[in-house]
Automatic annotation (TrEMBL):
Bias (Polar residues) ranges: 393-404
Keyword Repeat: yes
Pfam families found in the cross-reference section: RCC1 (PF00415), WD40_RLD (PF25390)
The species this protein was found in: Nocardioides flavus (ex Wang et al. 2016)
Residue ranges occupied by any RCC1-like domain in the UniProt entry: 19-375
Annotated segments matching region Disordered: 386-414
Record key words, sorted: Repeat
Protein name: RCC1-like domain-containing protein
Length: 821
């Protein structure tokens, strides 16, 4: 008896479909016959395809007659052709017949047959093949947190051809992710096998399962999906269950606690389809809306910002969605009309856009029509066109035929710097100032650049960069006894690895520990802060250190006047306490209220402002800041317990602070400001200070804000840039030098995707700058200022920017996926 009918019978619209592929292609995973990266979709020489599955740098196609084709990376023999030879073109798997569904893990692949049996091939280091222990029985006692602690026998190494998974029959669906697999029985039971670290199998244990075991705590299940380290089940009532790793909130239960048994994803009902990315997940509702949760560092959730969320949030602007898919840091939706929408990371053109511009919200992929299904994995994507319409598939839009203006290719994630180089900030081996962008050699794969000083803690002169491999590199320094105390080129910071985020001289590692990287002498090693093992982010705001924790709280470390300017473990002991009220904060900024006094000797009020995960904005007062130096009275710095939510800001997506004022943007695109207003920086046309937020009028819907001293910039949804506030040296870029108390639109700027302190990055990767040019800020080889935007010569493919005082940095688009520690 056949337990699963082929899609060619139940869904005739897919018969005769053609596959289109685009994105990363280092191992030929696009099936185009080459290894060239492709941001323009290309058709494969396959027809009659009814389903497409993306593996890790490989892919599989299922034809209507039940035959299977594979191509791409063939480590461990996961293509199933009996070899370990990569193939950039589809290869037919002659040993497979009567297949109705395919699935792919990290190094192992699977097929479901009409008879309800599951076949597996590829690697087997975590017993992903599900064929049992071989000659030696491995008990849970012989393992350590899921790892086999003895040499594997030959049978456990893997099989390059299909073998039958033990003990499964009457199976109706399969799924795989990372190093484990799942099978859905026709009675609604889920079976699992393979790697079980952090409870990724879901049976309540943490040791490997060599053959399938049932997850008994689940109700009757209708569909399953697997991420790299988590898994999901859709039950027959439309609820979603999750288990496994929860480091990024990918289980959707409002925590970041790993789960070895299924828990309900919060707030979801009426779900008809689920999809899993690397560390994020999505649900398609019966009403055609899409919801996402988990990791969001590259906008892969499509919710308008880049903050992780541990409960489902609605993907912006999508309706009438028919199906969904997710890669590592990008996601896709097929609408009922056959069009395709995508969002997230685009470093490899996986959004089908040759500009390689990321998108925090869904954008329609031009040229697609009549698409039946999308598949994605890592940084490659595939679209299956409907066989019912011969015109379906991809047709290259006219606008995409024009060549770009990129001047040259860049190393992945490389850093370019210019400006003041007196303390070797540029990192090029010299101390000569640079009036044009200069590459920092040997530094690629960079995701973040961090500085000490400014809003942060004491200044040690080092510039630090976080790479995709979790290492930190530093260069620059300060002048001591008329000589440079520092490095002229990047050097790896010893003693710290597996870093997931870097902020102002502090690092958070994957294990949740926090490290102080600031040094007095180059020979010093990083210091771990005590009593912190569950941090998700760190927010240094001199002289306080805020730490967001995975239990949904934020801790504050209050240092006395003798310790805030020092480093080392001694100064971090016994100072930590919870910050009452806001819960877990995703960002914190600070502004100073001078309205009550104009005298530093009389003291002043400082307010710290935090953005909570639920979109609320909280504010609290910091006391005892003192006069000409912080805390002149030598009393401990303190945070009042009366933190309060600011009115009108219940759905904020980001916050920022300039010189003594604060700004926030909400999900509906409105901008709110409060604080000092002597230069019109509040944008309300009054010049009057204000302690509570008020809406800035005259702006189109805004997606990003960037305060810059006593000025402010806003990036609108339509790609235009607006500015207000102080305007000496033409810093607003509006063509004048007059202060602007209300928003004005910058001339000549369009199609902008991000802004940074008087710079704009366009979707084509070019950088535009305006304002004062002291120190060579405009990077045009002169020191002449400009009150209108000018293109920065010599820069292309730019992803983000950073600056410290009179030195500027540009990071190009990296080609790799998000860092996984």
């Amino acid at each position: 008896m056949a337990w699963f009918k082929r899609a060619s019978v139940t869904n005739p619209v897919q018969v005769g479909g053609v596959v289109w592929a685009w994105g990363e292609n280092y191992h030929g995973q696009l099936g185009s016959g080459t290894q060239d990266q492709q941001s323009i979709p290309t058709a494969l020489e396959l027809s009659n395809v009814i389903s497409i599955v993306a593996g890790t740098e490989c892919a599989f196609a299922l034809q209507a007659d039940g035959t299977v084709w594979s191509w791409g990376f063939n480590d461990f023999g996961k293509l199933g052709d009996g070899t370990e030879q990569d193939s950039s073109s589809p290869v037919r798997l002659d040993g497979l017949h009567g297949v109705v569904q395919l699935a792919a893990g990290a190094r192992t692949s699977y097929a479901l047959t009409e008879a309800g049996e599951v076949l597996a091939w590829g690697g087997n280091p975590f017993h992903e093949l599900g064929v049992g222990p071989g000659a030696d029985w491995i008990t849970p006692r012989s393992q350590s947190d899921g790892f086999v602690v003895r040499s594997m026998n030959s049978a456990e190494v893997g099989s390059p051809t299909p073998v039958k998974v033990t003990g499964l029959s009457r199976i109706s669906a399969i799924a795989a992710g990372g190093s484990r697999a799942f099978a859905l029985d026709s009675d609604g039971t889920v079976w699992a096998w393979g790697d079980n670290q952090r409870g990724r199998i879901g049976d309540g244990t943490t040791f490997e399962h060599l053959t399938p075991v049932a997850i008994r705590s689940l109700p009757r299940v209708a569909a399953i999906a697997a991420a790299e380290m988590a898994a999901f089940a859709l039950d027959s009532t439309g609820r979603v269950w999750a288990w496994g790793s929860n480091y990024n909130g990918e289980l959707g239960d409002g925590t970041k606690e790993d789960r070895s048994a299924p828990v309900l994803v919060a707030g979801l009902s009426g779900v008809k389809e689920i999809a899993a990315g690397h560390s994020s997940a999505f649900a398609l509702g019966a009403d055609g809306t899409v919801w996402g949760w988990g990791k969001n560092s590259q906008g892969q959730l499509g919710i308008g910002h880049q903050n992780d969320v541990s409960t489902p949030a609605q993907v912006a602007g999508l309706s009438n969605v028919r199906s969904i898919a997710a890669g590592w840091a990008a996601a896709y939706a097929v609408i009922s009309d056959g069009s395709v929408w995508a969002w997230g990371n685009n470093d490899n053109g996986q959004l089908g856009d040759p500009t390689r511009a990321d998108s925090l919200v869904p954008v329609q992929l031009a040229g697609f029509s009549g698409i039946a299904e999308i598949a994605a994995r890592k940084n490659s994507a595939y679209a299956l066109a409907s066989g019912a319409d011969p015109e379906s598939g991809y047709s290259q839009p006219t606008s995409n035929t024009h060549s770009t203006t990129r001047t040259e290719s860049r190393e992945p994630g490389s850093v370019w710097a210019w400006g003041d180089n007196f303390t070797a900030q540029v990192g090029d081996g010299s101390r000569d100032n640079r009036l044009s962008p200069t590459p920092i050699r040997g530094l690629d794969g960079v995701t973040e650049i961090s500085f000490s000083g400014g809003q942060s803690f004491s200044y040690d002169g080092r510039i630090r960069a976080l790479r995709t491999d979790g290492t930190v590199w530093a260069w620059g320094g300060r002048i001591v006894n008329n000589s440079l105390d520092g490095s002229r080129v990047p050097e790896r910071v010893d003693g710290v690895a597996d870093v997931v985020t870097l902020k102002d001289g502090f690092a958070v590692k994957q294990d949740g520990t926090v490290w102080d990287l600031r040094v007095i002498y180059l020979s010093e090693s990083p210091h771990q802060l005590p009593d912190l093992s569950d941090a998700t982010a760190v927010h240094p705001v001199e002289p306080l250190l805020y730490v967001a924790r995975n239990d949904g709280t934020t801790a504050v470390i209050e240092l006395d006047s003798y310790s805030w300017d020092h480093k080392g473990p001694y100064y971090w002991g016994g100072k930590q306490r919870p910050l009452d009220g806001p819960g877990e904060l995703t960002s914190i900024v600070t502004w100073t209220d001078f309205a009550s006094t104009n005298s530093w000797e009389d003291g002043y009020y400082r307010f710290d402002v935090g953005l909570a995960k639920d979109g609320a904005v909280w504010q609290w007062r910091v006391e005892n800041l003192g006069t000409d130096v912080p805390n002149k009275s030598m009393a401990p710095f303190g945070v009042r317990d009366d933190a309060y939510a600011l009115p009108g800001l219940t759905d904020a997506t980001s916050i920022g602070a300039g010189d003594d004022f604060c700004v926030a943007v909400t999900r509906d695109g409105t901008v709110w400001t409060w604080g000092r207003n002597d230069k019109g920086q509040l944008g309300d046309g009054t010049g009057t200070d204000r302690q509570m937020p008020a809406k800035v009028e005259g702006l189109p819907p805004v997606v990003a804000i960037e305060p810059f001293g006593p000025s402010c910039f806003a990036l609108a949804e339509d790609g235009t840039v607006w500015a207000w506030g102080r305007n000496d040296d033409g810093r607003l870029g509006d063509g004048s030098s007059e202060d602007q108390p209300r928003p004005v639109k910058l001339p000549g700027l369009a199609d902008v995707c991000s802004i940074h302190a008087g710079f704009a990055i366009k979707r084509d990767g070019t950088v535009w700058a305006w304002g004062q040019n002291e120190g060579g800020r405009l990077a045009n080889g002169t020191t002449s200022s400009s009150n209108t935007p000018q293109q920065v010569p010599g820069l292309s493919d730019v992803a983000s920017m950073a600056s410290r005082e009179s030195t500027w940095f540009a990071i190009t688009h990296p080609s790799g996926g998000p860092h996984v520690g």
